[in-house]
Amino acid sequence: MVFSFAQQLMAEPLHFSLHKISSSSTGPTLLVIGGIQGDEPGGFTAASMLVTNYKVKHGNLWVVPNLNFKSIIKRSRGIHGDMNRKFNVLSEKDPEYAEVQKIKKIMLNDNIDIVLNLHDGSGFYKKKYINKMHNPNRWGQSIIIDQDKLNTSKYGDLSGIASNVQQYINKRLSNKSKYFYVKNTETKKGDVEMEKSLTYFSIKNDRPAFAVEASKSFLTHERTFYHLLAVEGFMNELGIQYQRDFDLTRNNVAQQIGNNLKISLYDNRINLDVEKARRYLNYVPLKKHSSLQYKKNNPLIAVIGKNKTLRVRYGNRYVTSLNPQYFDYDYSLDKINIQADGKNQTVDIGGKITVEKSFRVLADDSYRVNIIGYARRGVTNENKILVKRGQIKSRFSIDKEESLFRVELYKGKKFSGMVLVNFIDRNKNQPVSLKQGNSKVAFTSNL
Ligand SMILES: [Zn+2]
């Protein structure tokens, strides 16, 4: 996804993204929407994990993980009010008018069989009043339908489908206090608030729709776990076959959240692993007189200009800030040679190399090499110098774990690109994300 700034560090227009996770075969299509309210991270985190961790083998999964992206980034339920009350009547002057029109159009696309809206709700929905947190007015741990049936649709047995999914979820839960139930809001009978909701807009247009509510009584990773169970239950109902790259447990979901966050600037001249980044990264060589162009490997990442820095966010969370230094760019270099622990390797510009003890950049003499954090008296070009981890100041690492360092290449006054050096200690167990990799990142593309 490429955002353009008219000038450096202007506010980024944050729009939602649509990701089509499709098999080669046709077949049923499920649309999953997350983040209609910016303060419900279980829903939007689950939706984003569908994009980053799932593949579809039969049928199609369409995902909008970040519907109210601005509010997600601002950690607000809705910076322009509750977006889930904007689907009945909405003034064209509403700042979210265009976004609401856009998602309505996607929902009514002929391919879509079922629309799912993921929420985090308060307490625990129960049919009968038990106590303050467990009663009919609560929303958590429920599948919401607006009415029992839609006569015109193939998947019109809303209550039947919801109760199948409910059973699918509960069968996989050992603790009864966390069970899901079906809540019918009977919107048509005069629920004025629900009439304004996304799902009811869908129902009015004969498109089956459900909301899933994970309880806000749980931490984000646990809510995300329930949402993923629910989405899988719906895929099961539709006959959509999928694969995910982890076993669905609460702990594994917790590990996946915020893991593997990368941004890529200016056609891969700079690739940064930011999931463990320090609070600030200084003197990041950005392109002079240019709009900021970046790609990201997770739909919840946003890079936002603020007070001469670029703030990187992941959903509700702050990741890091890039304090820029501006350069003209040189595009003459695609790869360089680096000797790592005595072995010569070729590394792409924007790539990463793993080093145990020492490395030596072997670039053409027309380039100047700057190893950030390394300094030797009288040396301005660090090309062809043997460098050990101990000779680089730890505080210049990208990551808090002090293992990831920047090697920058310049031609004259122009910046030619960056390579990351990842120091590993073979005696320690390395976390997966720090394993060997000069790998290409699969960056997501958007609408
Ligand atoms: Zn909600």
If you had to describe this structure to a student in words, what would you say it looks like?
This protein is of the alpha/beta class. It has two domains: 19-256, Zn peptidases (Aminopeptidase); 262-434, no CATH class. Helix content is 17%, strand content 31%. The protein has seven helices and 26 strands. It has helices at residues 41-53, 69-73, 97-107, 158-171, 198-204, 220-238, 250-256; strands at residues 19-22, 29-34, 54-58, 60-64, 114-121, 124-125, 134-135, 142-145, 181-184, 209-215, 241-244, 262-265, 270-273, 280-287, 294-296, 301-306, 309-314, 317-327, 335-340, 343-348, 352-355, 358-362, 368-371, 386-388, 404-411, 414-423. The strands form seven sheets. The chain has a seven-stranded mixed sheet, sandwiched between helices. Strands 14-18-17-16 form a four-stranded mixed sheet, with no helix packed on it. β12 (262-265) and β13 (270-273) form a beta hairpin. α4 (158-171) crosses α6. The termini are close together. Bound molecules: zinc ion. Zinc ion (ZN) is lined by residues 37, 40, 119.
Summarize this entry quickly:
It is built from 7 helices and 26 strands.
CATH class division of the largest domain = Alpha Beta
Number of strands: 26
**Number of helical regions:** 7
Net shape: elongated
Low-pLDDT ranges? 1-11, 432-441
CATH architecture of the largest domain: 3-Layer(aba) Sandwich
Bound molecules: zinc ion
Count of structural domains:
2
Compute the average pLDDT. 92
CATH superfamily of the largest domain: Zn peptidases
Q: Gap between N and C termini, in Å?
A: 8 Å
Helix percentage range: 10-25%
Radius of gyration: 25 Å
- Structural class of the secondary structure composition? alpha/beta
Strand content: 25-35%
| Main β-sheet description | 7 strands, mixed
CATH topology of the largest domain: Aminopeptidase
Major β-sheet strand ordering: 1-4-2-5-10-8-9
